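User: Please work through this fold.
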Amino acid sequence: MSQRLRRVLRLPAVVSHSAGMSFATSSFVALAQVVRLGGGSQAWLAVLVAGCRVLPVARVFAELSRRYPRAEALRGYLCAAFPEPFARSVSMLYAFVMVAILGTEAYVLAQAASAVLPQVPAVAWVGALLLGSTALNLRGAEAAGRFQNLVTCAMLASACAMAALALGRGGPGLTAVPAGAWPQAVAASVYLFVGFEWVTPRAEEVTDTRAVARGLLLSVILLTGVFALLAAALGRPGMPVAGATPQIAFARGLGGGAWALWMLAVCLAASSTTFNAGIGAASRLLYGLAREGALPPPLAALSARSGVPAAATWCTAGGAVLGALAVALTRGFVGLIDLGATAESLIYALAALTLVRLDRRAWPHALTAAAFAALAVFAATDGGPAVPLTVGVAYLALTGLRRGPRMRGARRAAADGSPDPASAPAPR
């Protein structure tokens, strides 16, 4: 019988993992893109609209996690309503997007560190945070959770204080929204919330399964307020919103080198929480997929001392390093924001559609599925690698839907509490 993860995470850790994963250094690049698309100082409205659209998604993932509180998360949800090959293909794409976003984060952090302290090699900052996050996760979920709670609280409070001080120097004005850019601004705002649902692979580690549902909702509300405040500050007239480090230029424009150092500290905290939560979530997803036979069995091995999937943790960290190198070579960080927004919008649409197929009373979530399918199109048409990604996802969907019987037993499992067929090992 497979080993199980230890239940050590409480509600504060769920919220900090969810919010800390989404609030990253690359969020400032996404905010700058939202400012450009959303008409400058009105960009905060696009963030609010995106936050209101993501709230129903939080409810969807909360319900799916309640029904199937397992480490493989998305695969288990999709297996309940779609053919298993389709669920496996989408889950593999999901894991790839996780690692790609961690690589993007590493690159953007390196750019920010080099802009403020060029005398320190950027690779030193990235390497230290990646190794530190990996070591924390290898020590166990409890140690990583305590770190996440502390740093996330300090980081969000510091970012809000900086934005409030900036707005105190002159409130946001009203500027015209560029014609046709508003849908793209809302779609780009979805990237700001990327990863909030990545806490669902930790469902087997929470002490109370209701904590995942509560944590998801609290995290989205918290992130919406913080990002809207930052968008209002960054969208003030005359603020620079271009390049890989718009947050550093913004800080220097407000108060010179001291503000730039403050912003760098916020970036280091943001990246550390993203790495810590991202490595933890992605490693649990890989562990869950390996435990069900979808990935090599060694990834499902748990450390006897810490109770964490050590091989999956190292695999995730290595993937993040490779992703960072790929982004550094191509310098396609802006395109990867579109990639992340497109992929996450598609995942959100699929999750909502899954809940509708499992429970006909959840039909209002069909509107959520349609809304995020449309946002995925807007994000993909903004350019970058999101376009071929969308084509690839469509191909995987058509291939997966043609193969394999539909796993109807999972619907019965949700109703009568019988074993979930998604937990059965896939045939080799």
Q: What stands out?
A: The two ends are 18 Å apart (CA to CA). The CA atoms of residues 27 and 192 lie 6 Å apart.
